[in-house]
Give the backbone structure.
Amino acid sequence: MSTIPNVPYRLEFSVEVPGTPEQVWQAVATARGMSAWFLPTEMEERAGGSLHFTMGPEMGSDGHVTEWDPPHRIVYEEDWAALMGQEPDALSPLTSEFLVEAQSGGTCVVRVTSSGFGTGADWESEFWDDMGISWKPFFDNLRLYLSHFPGQEATMLEATASHPGEAETLWSTLHHALGLGDVGSEVDVRGATGTVERVGERQTLVRLTAPVPGMLSVFAHGEGDGRSATGVRAYLFSADAADYVRREEPGWQAWLDGLSVPA
């Protein structure tokens, strides 16, 4: 007998960002905007429109827009059960709502709520805990995008590698190897120069200035079974960005694969 998913889960937070409601809406409710600070996104920009987030090779999340009220409110649902490899009725859809509220002084507050219903399994709680930890740093990307690159289309560079060991040890190794400093410090990260904008738990965000302007997120996280993953994700804003990615992405991948982590 299947269990009806009736255990509620909820995640909510808000972030203040620069820009008009129209600029912020472009960033949080269009495929071009979402792809410039979040994940590569395909979206039919209307109520009932389909939605797809690319999370990596052979990995993604499908859904659809349920409510669409420009430039103030968008709600979309993702197929949580399919994402987790569960039976279709095992979980409710994963619902996310973005509210854009204009403030005085040329800023907006974006209020974000995600919610769903499960059965109370341990892995469901872990999913929501991990989602909160992994989601929130993206909103620093959003703030940086709207501060320096509003409306621009991003070209993404992405590389990840898996290593044995604890995430904290991997992060310490990565942080030291790349010479990542404190907030405000100028850094040279494998030939790309910029300024550290945020230092989080096993995550640093750099605003790149040369050779291509953009944002670089460097991170590490546990994978379970005694392994951890590390990665870089850069959003680049320049006509030269595609050539730069073709040239530099393989080098980043090889460098991450070859990272020497203490046992």
User: Anything to note?
Assistant: The chain has two domains: 7-148, 155-257. The mean pLDDT is 94. The chain has six helices and 13 strands. The helical segments are 21-28, 31-34, 80-83, 122-148, 167-178, 241-257.
